[in-house]
Amino acid sequence: MGMAFLLLACMMPGCIETGNSSSSADAAPVEAPIWNVGDWWLYTFSTPEYSDDTARLVVASDSEEGGTAYMLAISSIGEARRHAVLNHNPFLGRITHEDLSAFENGVPQPVLDFPLVEGAGWGFTLFSTEWYASVRTVTGGVAVMEAEASDGSTLEYVYDSSSKFFSSFIWTDSSGVVQLRMMLADDGESHSGDVYFVRGGDLYSNTWDESGPDIEFEDSFFVSDHPNDGEWNEMIYFLDAACGGGGSSITLTLRDHGSISALERVWGPGASESGTLGTIPYPSEEYTLTATFTGDSYLRLIFAGGITQSWSL
Q1: What distance, in Å, lies between the first and last C-alpha atoms of the chain?
Q2: Residue 160 and residue 141 in contact, taking contact as beta carbons nearer than 8 Å
Q3: pLDDT per residue over 54-64, tens digit each?
Q4: What does the alpha-carbon distance between residue 218 and residue 206 come to, in Å, rounded to a whole number?
Q5: Number of structural domains in the chain
Q6: Confidence category of residue 306, pLDDT binned at 50, 70, 90
Q7: What's the pTM?
Q8: Same domain, 138 and 286
Q9: Nearest Cα to 29, choosing from 123, 133, 134, 141?
Q10: Could you tell me which residues come within 8 angstroms of residue 4 by beta carbon, excluding any fewer than 6 positions away?
Q11: Is 12 a domain residue?
Q12: Which of 17, 57, 67, 255 has its Cβ near the most Cβ atoms within 10 Å?
């Protein structure tokens, strides 16, 4: 009688547990998060040109694109300008509610495709490259993904539902060089203060690596308006410079169409600087760039237009 009662009791709901119930819960699909204004993430960005550029990304708005997208801004105007001229962070600006899709050339790109399910796959465009992504694993709300391009480049990235965004994002080109490493350092809610987004547009870029006799270089470029948003607020420049010993030197001059000097720099023997960021407040229609190089000299120069938006949280 006792044995029969025990068998009957074990047939009741909830008595029998399978060994796979815990692992099934761990592998449950990861759903899209809901962001709130003031949510923030502190990331460290590294590229071949520089390392450990730390930036705090903040949800500035949740009503973009007719109420279907967030605005992801940055807590420092200097870092917002740096990101605009270097154009290395695709996750600033509008981010859709549905899939946290980043916009590239005005089109939302589903770097994530919720719900994230192990084995799922999809395509998107990022860094002007077409990718095919797949979910490798889903464990405890953490999804590990890999995307490949036809040239052999890869993206490896991890979405963590506890932080509601990427815990890491790594872009490696076809030669094995890491072009972007984005690592989460901290996250939180209710950021307080001003945040910024600088809509950037490439204007001019060049690199000189000289040795030997004196060289003079002259070029010009035209500053037109942003194709959708009108006049630029400012022109942002980014430069690296280095001179060898002896008589090495660099002279840089940028003049507007009225021959007024907008930027002047001189580097002598042994002088160098890296990652210098600056602005020219009133872009005009045309600029003339003149650079002279003596001896061993290196100069990298980038100009971009910038339109700044800000929010007070």
Answers
A1: 71
A2: yes
A3: 899 999 999 99
A4: 12
A5: 2
A6: very high
A7: 0.84
A8: no
A9: 141
A10: none
A11: no
A12: 57
